[in-house]
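Q: What changes when retinal is included in the input?
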Amino acid sequence: MTPEQIPLLIGFIVMSLGSVAIFLHGDKRREFRHHTQFHSVVPFIAATAYLAMTLGTGVIAIGDTTIYFPRYIDWSVTTPILLAGLILTGLHEHPRHSTYILPAIVLDVIMIATGLVAALTDDPTQKLVWFAWSCAAFAGVLYILWKPVCDVSDDLGGGMKTVYRANLIFLTVVWLIYPLAFAIGPEWLGMISGVGSLWLILVLDVTAKVVYGFVATARFKKLPDGTP
Ligand code: RET
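A: The predicted holo structure follows.
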C-alpha cells in the first residue's frame, strides 16, 4: 500500500460507516426524514469516490500534479445535496421560497467545475483567474445563504431558525477552509506535500459530511412534532 492509499482507504471506511450511522441515528419523523436521507447519502457518495481513488481509478498525473477526478465528481454531487438540505431548513420547507435552491446549486457546481479547471491548468495566470472565478461563485453561494435565506428564516422564526443558524455557521466555517487547502496544496503553491494534502482534505471531507451530517440531523431531533 502506498502512502497516498492510506488516507484514501481510511476515507472509504469512515464515509461508509458514517453513512450508516447517520441513517440509523437521524430523525425518522415525516417532517424531517428527508434530511436524514440527504445526510446519509452524502457520505455514501463520498465513500464511492474514496474507493475509486484508493483503487487508482480517475487518479491521473498531469505534468507534476496528480489530479483526483473522483473528488471533484463527489463534490459536484454532494455539495448541492448539502446546500438543498440547508436551504430547505432556512426556508422552513416553504415551497413558495424554494426558488433560492436553484441559483445556489448552479453557482456551487460552477465553483467546483472552475476549481477543477484551476487544478488542471499549468499557466500561473490562468490558475489565478480560474481560482478567483471559483471564489466568486462561492461568494454568490454564501450571499444566498447569509442574506435572502437568512431573512426568510428570521421572519419565520422558531426552532427551524435556530437550527438553520447553527448549521449555516458550521457549514460556512468548514467550507471556507477548502479554497485555502487548495491554495497551499500541490494543485497550486505546493506548500504541503501530495500526501499531506490528502490527509487535510480527508479531515475536511469527514467534517463537512459526517460530523456536519450527524450534528445537523441531531438538531432536528430536538424540534417538537409538527415543526415547521
Ligand atoms: C475549490 C477550488 C478553489 C476555489 C474554491 C474551491 C471550493 C471548494 C469547496 C468545496 C467544498 C466541498 C465539500 C465537500 C463535501 O461534501 C474547488 C477548492 C472556492 C467549498 C463541502
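Observations recorded in class: Residues 184 and 191 are 5 Å apart (CA to CA).
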